[in-house]
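Hey team,

Sharing the DUF2997 domain-containing protein run so nobody has to redo it. Sequence (72 residues) first:
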Amino acid sequence: MAQRQIKVRIYEDGRIQADVIGIKGKGCIDYISILEQLLEAETTDSSYTSEYYESEQSVSETTQVHHRFRSL
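Structure output:
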């Protein structure tokens, strides 16, 4: 089985980009939902690789979420 990974990039303007790697099919969306909950953010744009449309467990998905940081 391929190693499962989530690569996360946080940009200066608060945008977050996440790539889900190692999961085929629609299961990758579950990982993005977890990130949204942890970061109190929502997905604003998604794109899928061909692996998303395969059945099993290895997809790469790029998703950008926008998070507004709270001042303390």
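The chain is about 15% helix and 35% strand.

Ping me if you want the raw files.
A.
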